[in-house]
Design brief:
The protein has 278 residues and is α/β, with parallel strands linked by helices. It has a single domain, classed as 3-Layer(aba) Sandwich (Rossmann fold), CATH 3.40.50.1820. 37% of the residues lie in helices and 22% in strands. It has seven helices and nine strands; from the N terminus they run αβαβββαβαβαββαβα. It has a nine-stranded mixed sheet with strand order 1-9-8-7-6-4-5-3-2, with helices on both faces. Helix 5 links the parallel strand 6 and strand 7. The longest helix is centred in the N-terminal third of the chain and has 32 residues. The radius of gyration is 20 Å and the shape is globular. The N terminus is likely disordered.
Length: 278
């Protein structure tokens, strides 16, 4: 009897290990299928626009500390999705309407959580009737060298069961390390995302391709940005425009890398830009 039980457990363990390997390989192969092809021909140069944005009210803070409010922690629901064998937690907000709605996928900065982005976008999403989804990076940072679009597609499918999502109107937004990741996804993968807005971060042109499908992006950067060099962000914007990727560089006077003093204003402006896209 003991030998039978041991044999049964061994079979279950092996089967489970096989399932984990298959799941991991499946996720890897799905990501490979979603790689954006390089353009076969030299693209037509796209517009690059750099401007100073005076419409933002920069709050001059004495204490640079931020945690999501108790209200947001209480009212915002969460779910999780497997990326291979790694569970990825995500938070979301969506309107209760009987029609498909746009979606903005939000990526936090290093060692933050999805809730930090949800709070910055909460009022804009509620006032404009679109959904927001914000995953939390399991390691605290995003794998921009090998972006994982497959897990995001699964999240969108899961969210669609709760709030109907218009897959023709999916956008990306990221802050700092999340901005780097959003740009990597936009440039290197064939996901449903149409455009991206970035704050306080970017992916250098040396790490980007000449994409077969050029999708536009907008970069917001503070005049006193400390995490990245403004000159490098501009150089990347100019180079990506040569590669056929239309992009704007919005420089915010008196602003730094600290997103949380004007995050709600950046959200509103980003959404207005997303809506203006053809």
């Amino acid at each position: 009897m003991i030998r039978v039980v041991v044999l049964f457990l061994a079979v279950v363990v092996c089967a489970g290990a096989g399932l984990f390997v298959w799941t991991a390989q499946s996720a890897k192969s799905r990501n490979a299928e979603a790689i954006m092809p390089v353009a076969e021909h030299t693209p037509i140069a796209a517009p690059f626009v750099m401007e100073s944005a005076t419409q933002f009210h920069v709050r001059h803070l004495k204490d640079f500390r931020y945690e999501p409010s108790e209200k947001i922690q209480t009212i915002v629901p969460s779910d999780s999705t497997l990326d291979g064998i790694t569970p990825v937690k995500w938070h979301y907000v969506g309107p209760q309407v009987a029609r498909p709605v746009p979606l903005v996928v939000l990526f936090h900065g290093r060692d933050r959580t999805g809730l930090s982005m949800i709070e910055m976008w909460y009022e804009t999403a509620r006032n404009n009737g679109f959904a927001i989804l914000a995953p939390t990076a399991p390691s605290g940072n995003w794998p921009y060298e090998e972006p994982s679009p497959y897990v995001l597609e699964k999240m969108i499918d899961q969210l669609h069961e709760k709030h109907q999502i218009d897959r023709e109107k999916v956008f990306l937004f990221g802050h700092s390390a999340g901005a780097v990741y959003a740009q990597a996804l936009l440039n290197k993968t064939k996901g449903p995302w149409r455009a991206a807005a970035l704050h306080g971060g970017f992916l250098p042109a040396s790490h980007q391709i000449v994409p077969q499908e050029a999708k536009p992006y907008r970069a917001y950067v503070g005049q006193h940005e400390t995490g990245f060099e403004l000159a490098d962000i501009r150089a990347t914007g100019e180079e990506m425009a040569k590669r056929g990727v239309a992009n704007d560089l919005i420089v915010i006077p008196q602003h730094t890398h600290w997103f949380y003093d004007i995050g709600d204003q950046i959200a509103a402006d980003s959404w207005a830009w997303f809506k203006s896209l053809p």
